[in-house]
Write a structure and sequence with these properties.
It is a single chain. By secondary structure, the protein is an alpha+beta fold. The chain has 3 domains: 191 residues, Nuclear Transport Factor 2, Chain: A, CATH 3.10.450; 106 residues, Nuclear Transport Factor 2, Chain: A (Roll); 121 residues, Glucose Permease (Domain IIA) (Distorted Sandwich), CATH 2.70.70.10. The strands form 5 sheets. Strands 1, 2, 9, 10, 11, 12, 13 and 27 form an 8-stranded antiparallel β-sheet that branches. Strands 14, 17, 19, 20, 21, 23, 25 and 26 form an 8-stranded antiparallel β-sheet that branches. α1 packs across α7 and α6 crosses α7. It binds zinc ion (ZN). Zinc ion binds next to loops.
Length: 458
């Protein structure tokens, strides 16, 4: 990656990577639904507060006039105007506060492609403006602690520059036992809610965080803590984690394969987000794709087709796309005989028009297990399976999402590297748990595994 840097200082291991990767690969949006359903009200309120910056004066002229005091030392005057983007603010409305007229503002924002980005401000963005002779000398837009854009005037031209700072990454450890809720246990362990969501997301395929969580369930994780100039600026990705649910322990480790895809794996090298069966019926062909406006073959009306149709002779076995629990088995409107399977807390699959249903509600099924047979019950013009794939209750295109859930198996050479990395991470977690390394470690030694980890940095 362009801005990647790797530093090895003695046996102190740190790595740097660009910010836009921090949020990658962790289904935050998908976990957001989970957040709302799991969080107690107080926590939701806390998060909302976090998202809406508390009101503060929009303009903070930093020039302080000392009240009639005579000091011998020169008074330091900050010549910059510091503005924070609040609800309803536009760049124009903010810059007008500096005394600039619309023409001058237009000239500045149209001076370059980067400068045009100034037009789209986000709540909480910070704008620092340096004025000289009634014109903007320099303008800095800080979108986050790491990203900023600066526009500087030289002569009668403006020059713009994007700056992305790269944080130093250190490992921290957290562990906890669930008493009333996962989020409270997470907070107790020093995790922000975003991190707790990430943790839940890693194990979402194996654990149903809405239904299966019990008092006494526990977790432990090694995660990245981000520093800028020695100051902690937030938490990054989870590096390795374990979750014990009803006495069964699941482990996961983050690994980037040779193609640069970062996923969570079990310690023996299987992908956590397991692959669903590509097609739940053998030897079938797609007769209709997922589409939000399709003319229905029988109703002759434009109707969303929220699944895929696989044409196959009546009686062809239909298989469960993944391990899970049957949450519905019966007749449902136009879909005739229907089976729905819940896979962990996030995914559900639906099978329609079956001629026969082979499972009962509540039954546990394994991937590939026959759950019924192709038919044309309900509204169907011929025998086919209507197959839907739901993420958090919303039907999505199964084919597109199969790809997301899928990952190539690790090659033999990769597996050796993976094993070494995994062993180091889990032994490090053990040391943390045993107290050999202080819980909030400032720096983490990884010994000779440094090199092995290097290519994994995203
Ligand atoms: Zn269909």
């Amino acid at each position: 990656m362009l801005t990647k840097e790797t530093h090895n200082t003695g046996n102190v291991w740190t790595h740097h990577f660009p910010r836009h990767h921090l949020l990658a690969a962790c289904g935050i949006s998908l976990a957001a639904t989970l957040l709302l359903s799991v969080l107690p009200d107080s926590v939701v309120a806390y998060r909302v507060q976090e998202l809406e910056p508390s009101p503060a004066p929009a303009v903070t002229p930093a020039i302080e006039t000392p009240a009639a005091e005579i000091t011998t030392a020169p008074v330091e005057i900050d010549p910059w105007l510091h503005l924070t983007v609040r609800k309803g603010d536009t760049l124009s409305s903010l810059l007008q506060k500096t005394g600039l007229d619309t023409n001058a503002i237009h000239e500045l924002t149209n001076s370059s492609k980067d400068a045009q980005k100034l037009a789209s401000l986000n709540l909480g963005d910070e704008l620092d403006v340096l004025m000289k002779d009634g014109a903007v000398q320099e303008l800095r837009l800080r979108r986050s602690k790491l990203d900023s854009l600066s526009v500087t005037r030289t002569g009668d031209k403006y020059e713009s520059k994007q700056v992305t700072l790269i944080p130093e990454v250190r490992y921290s450890y957290a562990a906890g036992t669930i008493d009333s809720s996962l989020f409270l246990a997470g907070q107790k362990a020093g995790l922000n809610d975003r991190m707790t969501l990430k943790l839940a997301d890693i194990f979402a395929y194996d654990v149903d965080f809405l239904q299966d969580i019990q008092q006494g369930d526990s977790f432990a994780l090694l995660y990245e803590e981000l520093y800028l100039d020695g100051q902690s600026i937030g938490q990054g990705n989870i590096v390795s984690a374990e979750f014990t649910n009803q006495g069964k322990t699941y482990r996961a480790v983050q690994y980037t394969n040779k193609n640069g895809t970062t996923s969570y794996y079990t310690p023996d090298g299987n992908i956590m987000r397991k692959q669903f069966l590509r097609t739940p019926v053998d030897f079938a062909k797609v007769t209709s794709y997922f589409s939000l406006n399709r003319k229905h073959p029988i109703l002759h009306k434009i109707r969303a087709h929220k699944g895929i149709d696989y044409g196959a002779p009546t009686g062809t076995p239909i298989r469960a796309a993944g391990d899970g629990t049957v949450v519905f088995a019966g007749v449902r409107n136009g879909f005739g005989n229907v089976v729905m399977i819940q896979h962990g807390g996030v995914y559900t699959t639906l099978y329609g028009h079956m001629s026969k249903i082979g499972v009962k509600k509540g039954a546990r099924v394994n991937q590939g297990q026959v759950i019924g047979a192709v038919g044309m019950t309900g509204l169907a013009s011929g025998p086919h399976l209507h197959y839907e794939f739901h993420v958090n209750g919303t039907a999505v295109n199964p084919l597109a999402n199969m790809n997301v859930a899928m990952a190539e198996p690790l090659s033999k050479t990769e597996k050796a590297n993976f094993d070494k990395t995994t062993a180091a991470l889990f032994s490090q977690m053990k040391e943390f748990a045993a107290g050999t390394i202080p819980q909030k470690s400032q720096q983490v030694a990884l010994g000779d595994t440094d090199k092995n980890r290097e290519p994994q940095i995203r």
